Amino acid sequence: xxxxxxxxxxxxxxxxxxxxxxxxxxxxxxxxxxxxxxxxxxxxxxxxxxxxxxxxxxxxxxxxxxxxxxxxx
Length: 73
Description:
This protein has helices at residues 8-29, 36-54, 59-62. By secondary structure, the chain is mostly helical. The N and C termini lie far apart (35 Å).
């Protein structure tokens, strides 16, 4: 485990960057043309960024980025 001390402004900037990345990933994961290894890599990235974003925001903010549909198959 690593520790990190940030100023309020730095924390806000990281929060913003994570939020934008989650928005992009959610949009891309809805694209049916993306499949296979690329999709799995994107899903792993989404999980990692989602957990990291959860360290910066309250639960009601985090819930906005929960994936609502998972394609089986």
